[in-house]
């Protein structure tokens, strides 16, 4: 699910940390993102990628259900919509306003 904030009031890093997200660097790709665990284990977890498009903020949110199960592939059991993802998207949208 993509969340767009036209002009965020605060730095995304600060807001995401306050919302329970921690920075995460993918060891395979080296790409930076943020994750928020839903329990005590590493999965399931909310996973967001943040990009600026001019002055607008674009957040790509999904729920990782488990780690990738095929060596050399990045496919995983991720949910990009649904009630749980929509509720988290609304929570982030309100935090970033």
- How many structural domains are formed by the residues? 1
Question: How many H/I helices?
Answer: 2
At the third CATH level, what is the topology name?
Alpha-D-Glucose-1,6-Bisphosphate, Chain A, domain 4
Indicate the mean pLDDT: 88
- Inertia-based shape: globular
Strand content: 35-45%
Low-confidence stretches: none
- Estimate the helix proportion, in percent: 10-25%
Order of helices and strands: EHEEEEEH
What's the CATH first level?
Alpha Beta
* Largest β-sheet summary: 6 strands, antiparallel
What is the CATH architecture annotation? 2-Layer Sandwich
Taking Cα atoms only, what radius of gyration do you get, to the nearest Å? Answer: 13 Å
Distance between the termini: 17 Å
Secondary-structure blueprint of this entry?
Elements: E1 2-5, H1 12-18, E2 22-25, E3 32-37, E4 45-53, E5 56-64, E6 78-79, H2 83-96
Antiparallel strand pairs: 1-5, 2-3, 3-4, 4-5, 5-6
Task: State the main characteristics.
97 residues; alpha+beta; Alpha-D-Glucose-1,6-Bisphosphate, Chain A, domain 4; 2 helices; 22% helix
């Amino acid at each position: 699910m993509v969340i767009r904030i036209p002009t965020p009031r605060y730095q995304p890093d600060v807001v995401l940390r306050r919302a329970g997200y921690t920075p995460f660097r993918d060891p395979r790709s080296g790409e930076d993102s943020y994750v928020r665990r839903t329990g005590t284990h590493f999965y399931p977890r909310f996973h967001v990628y943040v990009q600026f498009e001019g002055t607008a903020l674009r957040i790509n949110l999904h729920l990782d259900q488990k780690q990738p199960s095929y060596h050399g592939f990045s496919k995983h059991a991720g949910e990009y919509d649904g009630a749980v993802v929509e509720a988290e998207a609304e929570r982030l949208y309100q935090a970033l306003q």
